[in-house]
Amino acid sequence: MRRNRLAFSSRSLLAAAIALQLATPAWAQDATAAQDDAANTKTSKTTAGKDGKRQAVDLDTVEVRGVRASLIASQVIKRDSEQIVDSVSAEDIGALPDRSVTETLQRVSGVTIDHFMARNDPDHFSAEGSGVMIRGLTQVRGELNGRDIFSAASGRGLSFEDVPAELMAGVDVYKNPSAEIIEGGLGGTVNLRTRKPFDQEGQLIGGTADVNYGDFSKEYKPSASFLYSNRWQTGLGEMGFLIDVAHSELATRSDGIQVEPFVRRTDDAVLAGTDFDQVYVPGGINWRELDFHRKRDGIGAAFQWRPSDATEVYVQYLRSKYDMNWQERAAFFNDSNDAIVPAAGTTFQYDDNGVFVSGSPVSSSWRGNLTTDGVRFNTDNRYAEQQTTTSDLSAGFSHYLNDNLVLKGDMQLVQSESDNLDFTVFTATYLPGLSYDLSGKYPSVSIDDPAYAADPSNYFWAAAMDHLAKNRGRQLSTRVDLEYTFQDSSWLRFARFGLRATDRTQTNKNSGYNWGVLTDNWATIPTTASGLATLDAYLSGSAHLYTFPNFFRGKVNLPGNLQFPVDSLAKNYAATSEMFQQFYDLRGWGWAPDQYNLQDTNRQFERTEAAYAMVYFGNDEALGIPVDGNVGVRIVQTKTQADGYGIYPDLSATAASDALKALYHGQYFSTNSRGQYTDVLPSLNVRFKLRDDLQWRVAASRAMARPDFTQLQAYLQLAATTETDGTVSDWTGTAGNPDLKPMTANQFDTALEWYFDNSDLLYATLFYKDVKNYFSTQTRTETYGDQDWLVTRPYNMDKGVIQGFELGYTQFFDSLPGWLSGFGVTGNFTFVDSSGGVNTATDPYSNTTVTGVKLPLEGLSRRSYNIAGIYEKGPWSIRLAYNWRSRYLLTTSDAATHLPTWADDYGQLDGSAFYRFDDHWQLGIQANNLTDSTTKVLMGPTSYADGEVDTRLYTRGWFVNDRRYSLVLRASW
């Protein structure tokens, strides 16, 4: 048999046997598979002798299972890797420590996640998390077994929440990768590892079954997985086959209450009863309840064939299908800020800084034919669904040309598609007697006359909004690698050379959000005296009373019954569109179902060609201590092509002049683009083995990250705001930027790692990234057809520095007596600081870039940590894990408020407890969000056209969600 060319030490092989298996990334690291039974491992402890020296003491055989075995497996990968890496391993089949890959990743030092469905839409909470960031950077590349993987919905990256956690053997995070790892991860690279049949001896059968329950959603949902793996000696050599299937469902509920932006006011009505020259009044209050459901199905299969000691052939396949839907009921009043004044005989109350605290608002805005006092109040029912399917088929071989030279080849096809439909139906009323109070922990809202709010004749059908998206992505990759082993060199161990080429096509269709009026005081219909389609007279039975049950777990005071569109309206898009046609027909304009237009479709093509060369070196004696490492360079050329359309505004139905109507009538123009750039990416990794249990690492490299496909879209949508006198007050636009260049970083890491027992570890890592050409959305003046437009699009900015440190610690207290010896603890802490690279804010009222306001990089928390207490003794495996991250900038311009929006400090406690009946069966409970944590969102600074900037961060919203519990049964043979 030919030996493994990575030349791991025999000590590494022995330690690796503690886990059931260690499958490492293809091409990045060929770690030896563990073949010993993980349940029985000989360990040793060191104690201080009489002479003060540490002496080895043999202990009896101990049981190493569950969480502890997974931690040991992860530490073996970290210790024996040629570069700095952090791992999470699943010792038991289907047993990653969390229910999703995203939640698992947040346990790794330096890795954080969002708790929203999208960072620019923090109105919608995500229980399982999204948006993986490494050291504050969102440019994270996803791999599957060392190969590219992506989700069409997220463009270039992978939506980790789409991937079944039950199929994973482990997850590795590379923060300063070597030259052989595929380029594209500026923050880092996340590699998802699945199992292969040659990873274990003989037959392996395993499975899981569980049912999970959310105490807020009050729903039970099932999950299950099954794995079969075996290997056989045949007349054609050894063959192995593995199949792994998984099904998972989840239902959660989240409640949110929000405050609209605080706006500076100087008018007498709001200043009455105060000594202030100006005050800050919010535009309203929102509350929303969101029911989320997802179904995730996955299948993984692998075939390996070793016809001889010199040759191996393999085929791997993974398919993941993710179906998600959510329904939201929201109630909100957000009348025009400048029209809100205190009700007759009342005044608003403010704090010492002139910020609104409480009051009873009415509005002076136009009511049409209605005489009702009060404020504009809306309810809506919204339903969104998404289906994403990703498949990955790869095949390859390795062949030893001679004892010193091995040739490897690999081909991969990834296809992903995602379809979205989002539909909202709005009703409205003008509600008298509403009061709200912001002085407590949460806002409180009350209504003087609940009967008025419950009467359908006081509401009218106001508007509808739909959104369509269809994304398709396909990538074909080929790779060839050559590895040469040096036999007689004192320093050189082996060299690797490789070529890789990809062809990627991406087609994105996005209709935008098509809001349109049904009826309103400015869009009346001729069949009623008020001109409004009231709920009792139109589409009777399509609205009903709804009371938010147990809203915010009873912690928030809200009005009782309100009228809402029924669920079937929001969920049956086609039928509802036909019913709403009557409003369009009565008036001749208004909301109509959206359709894809030319500017909604963007097609992109990308070709990459990369070559790398690396040398692995090492010497145990020359420097007095063992030293090893690698040095290499990767050169990659990227060619891009983007095809799309721009569109001028259509002023033909406005009060604009005839000259303007002739110039701007919704005409299209092409916006195609071609590009090419080359990156040279050197890397160096050195390890100094100061002692058998102590090693020091130094790493330096240059990394790059290409812009996301959504940023590269070749579209330009221009708009004009016309006034009643025919003048145009605003010329604006939104666009992608196909000319974006990649972000690059010169990065340096150094780490000190102390493995002071077979399951105990203490490490410290310092890192520094000098980032250039970072991406930021800006609003700038652009000229088209002799007209200046304020166009918002992504740009490459100058440069910035990201630096910080990570600390990690794991220890099991085996020296404690009796049952106490089962206790262990693991934790990590990360500090990240940035300077230089900043975003700018945009004035939400004038759309101009604000000077003097500098914002940090999006997604960057200065501090984050994990701490977990573990108990492993006899049949018991218990874990309590707390994760926390500090405040960070979600987006420079929130989709709803257009203000910079922040996520406040957030922490959550999760736990699990398993009992092992024998070598085959275990039963346990997993729990998430035991602390019933509240997610808090902030907004600001707020800037004004006269140059004043209100630097305060106001609370935008609060969200609560389920405590989730799962009863889990695991089995393996």
Write a structural description.
The protein has 973 residues and is mainly beta. The protein has a single domain (10-818, 829-972), classed as Beta Barrel (Maltoporin, Chain A). The protein contains eight helices and 57 strands. The protein has a 22-stranded antiparallel β-barrel. It has a six-stranded mixed beta sheet with strand order 34-33-37-38-42-41, with no helix packed on it. Strand 23 and strand 24 (405-431) form a beta hairpin. The chain is globular and about 95 Å long. The chain starts with 9 loop residues before the first helix and ends with a strand.
Offer a quick outline of the entry.
With 973 residues, this protein is mainly β.
Approximate strand percentage: over 45%
Q: Specify the CATH architecture.
A: Beta Barrel
Ends: how far apart?
28 Å
Counted up, domains total: 1
| CATH topology grouping | Maltoporin, Chain A
Structure summary, number of beta strands:
57
CATH superfamily assignment?
TonB-dependent receptor, beta-barrel domain
Rg of Cα set: 30 Å
So what's the overall shape? globular
What are the segments in which pLDDT stays under 50 over at least 5 consecutive residues? 1-63
Percent in helix:
under 10%
Question: DSSP helix count?
Answer: 8
Domain TonB-dependent receptor plug: 78-189
Subcellular location: Cell outer membrane
Region (Disordered): 35-54
InterPro entries: Beta-barrel_TonB, Beta-barrel_TonB_sf, Plug_dom, Plug_dom_sf, TonB_rcpt_bac
